[in-house]
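Weekly structure sync, notes
Attendees: PL (lead), two postdocs, one rotation student
Agenda item 3: pending single-chain targets
PL asked that the sequence for the first pending target be pasted directly into the notes so everyone works from the same version. It is reproduced below exactly as submitted, 987 residues in total.
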Amino acid sequence: MITLYLLLMGADHSLRWTHQEGASGELDQAYFVCMHRDSYGLMWFGSAEGLLRYDGLRARWYRHLPDENSLTPGTVTSILEATDGDFWIGTSGGLNRLDRVTGWVERFEPGTDGQLHSQNIWCLAESHDGKIWVGTDLGLEVLERGVFVKVPQIQSGTTALLRSVDGSMWIATESAGIFRADVNGNVSQINHELRVRQMVADSRGTIWLGTPDQGLWTWQETFKPFPLGPTEINGLESDVKGDIWVGTAQGLFQIAGLKREVISHQSPDPQEDPRIQLVHEDATGLVWVATHASGLYTLDLLHLRFHVVPISSGGANDLIQLQDGQLWVASKTGLIHVELESGDQELFMSGENARSLYAISDQLLLVGTERGLFQFDLSTRESQVLAKCQRVWDIALQQDEIWLATEQGIVIVQSDKEIRNITTDDGLSSRLVSSLCATEDGVVWVGTFGGGLSRVTSSQIETFQNEPQNAASLSADNILDLLLDTQGRLWIATLSGGLNLMNADHSFRRYMSPEFLPDNAVVALAQDHRGHLWLSTSAGAVRFDPNTESFVAYSDDDGMTLGSFTVGSVAVHGDRVWIGGSQAAVGFYPDDLGHEKRSELLVTDVMINNQDRYHLLPAGTPILLSADERSLSVNLTNLEFRSLPLNPSAYQRSDIDADWVFADQVSYTQYKPFGGEGTLRIKVADTYYRWQQFTIPIKVATPFWVRWLPLWILMTLTAVAFSTYAIANRRHRARQRKLIEAAEFERQRAQLAEDQRQVEVKARELQEEHNRVVQEYLEQLSNEIANDLHDGPLGRITGLGYQIRQWGQISNDEQLKEEFDEISQSAIPEICNHLRNLCGELITPDLKYGLIDEMERYAELVVAQTPGLTLETHWTVDEPELPADVQSALFRVARTLIKNVSKHAQAKKLVLSLTADAEHIMLSIRDDGKGFVVPASWDELKANRHYGMYLAHYFVSSLGGTMMVETQPERGTHISIKVPIRAGAYS
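Predicted structure, written out during the meeting:
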């Protein structure tokens, strides 16, 4: 952008023109017919080439194309943003509704009943009830509930539409004059002659009308010509102050103030055609001006709201505006009186270097100078010395005493003109006192340069200074100004530590750059009528809001005077603020500054897989990605048409970027292979390099294969279960056939033995041996089937259940997670329980006499058959009410272990005990035999074909219990078994 500074004719300082070119010069030579700044802050321009969107950095065109998703053909003549957010575009080829987020265009073209009667759109407006009014070359139409209704009273082309303050609609026509429709829809003709091209209403209710050949007119009860001359009016705009801006064939005019003073502004480029085509003011105080030949310009109205009073003879060391409205300035050359109406200045106390001012009354001023304190009589314009001392930086009144801040401490002038001093010898922290602030309770706060803040009372001096390790201490000791606000809070301005607020407990709240201020050098403080603080800083005048802890800075670019600011030189008179500098004093009304200068951030373009998806993205709108869309990128704008392009930016993708990624363009690579939600965080530095942050939600669709994965897993598990059952069943039937064949073979042999007496004895022995082998074979076969089922399918399915549970835990899809949990916690355990039950059926003991009775009977039988072995039992519970499978398993375990004692232990004593608590039943088997070496793994017993101990451990484990073996060679063996009791099974 190229910025031009031109003098404002009749004004006291320059008017700022900015030539808006766009990144590629799109705005430079374009001939615009209409323009509008929308609610997002984007600028829109209509021309013969189409519709142009401009965000301060980039331009995007919307043109007529062969496909249906484009504007109707012809010149873009009008732009309307309705209150419901619809964006309407009128062209010479029809009406369009544009979706600004997606870029989708809905066309409205002439056709059958209920549609447009003409395609040539001239103007658009919205009535108070939300209806869209469409002015065409054939008259006026109203769009209501999707139907266009022609207004019968308007038979001439409609050139302009305006909704007035009272809600009525003004209709300007090409050849039939002006009509007005009241809020009830009644249309009446109020003028027969004027051919109006532009209409605008100001804040006072006046209607302004621009014509192509009859000049400028106003209406307020009656039509009157405005004395601007018979010039061609091309553009009209009313700014926030009520001033009227007029674009004409002769240039730009401003009609200002209540007196309607006409100010002619020199064309932005005097060498080119002076014709102004369009004028538009946005909400930020920028006036956009489209010229006939040299492109687009903006005028910053903020410049016009600062009243600069040059003080060439020494600057404004301090200033004060009295009740009569007169401004008095303390300067290096003396005391200056400024007549604000005329701008005349008169010098008094010539030769005195005045540093500070204090008004005792409407007639008396105290003036602090390099030589001491003077009293100046406003009525006689004479001065007299009250006290001689070195350089008076500040003045305060405490009861009947005048306190002076000097370079040699505090000088106090008493009512009897006696003088006393407070110096470092009295406890003052520094001899250079820069500022004073007196309170009603007799306390004087003293700001020093280099010594911090002091609290002075009649009895003591208390000092507050910066403590490097204490964040609640004063930020810096070089204090330049103090302010006691309307709420009784003390504010401290420092040269290097920004602004400080003293809390009730005498701690300090710091406000420093860059979070709260643009600069840490604060030289003066004042409070306006709204409670805002005004700070004079090296970065300009700063408005600080104590409630929101936010600031807005105004520099030379906004209209503040050039030159450094002066310590303590700030004053408030009514609702006006004055700030003094080394070259001038600047006065302004804070209410007139209006807009907040902080720029708003907006995502203007979103590309997905390098394809255009969103034209802009409102805050909080999620970006939706399909499973196949892998990447996206976004463009940012700060919507600041006054400043340089976008400041540094950074982004961070949730769960993937550990730190911020700094880049000019924000890019994002999809990292959700199973779908789900993520976030893209973006931060951008604003004009003062404070980081503003916002978040874009990202939603990724779940892939097809992931949605069907639970069903595939369930089908696979079902197939595995059926295959396992079929294999086990086939093996069982094959073994049954072998047993049947063996039995048949033995029967035939027995028959032959009966026929052969001589071999009868031998046959009987063989038969008994065969029966024993068959019995052992059947028991071993039963154990093998149980072991095969446990170690094979049951183990694998259990492991598969754990794996499926882990898949469910890592999934981000809630539906997928529920389906995984259902398989792992219901289907898999059901299959496992079935297989365990099958194992139990293969090895089933007979417990018809009860568990304790059966164990005791079996033990007594074993002891009776084992010489030298005695039995001791301890049954501390009655018959336990356990399920049959639990009793069978416990009996099987007890039987196996008792048999092992009788067979291998060579013990003399066997002790059995059964105990229980609320949750477990405990079986103990103890002998005093020779013991054995416990293997490292139970599988070693199975490998060595010692199935007893192995199956005992297996059965205990299948019940969720534990089996502990304690043994040493020649010292006996103790086996303790602990099995949980199912709920309600034991009492």
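Discussion points:
- The first helix runs from residue 590 to 593.
- Residues 1-14, 767-778, 983-987 have pLDDT under 50 and may be disordered.
Action: rotation student to compare against the earlier draft before next sync.
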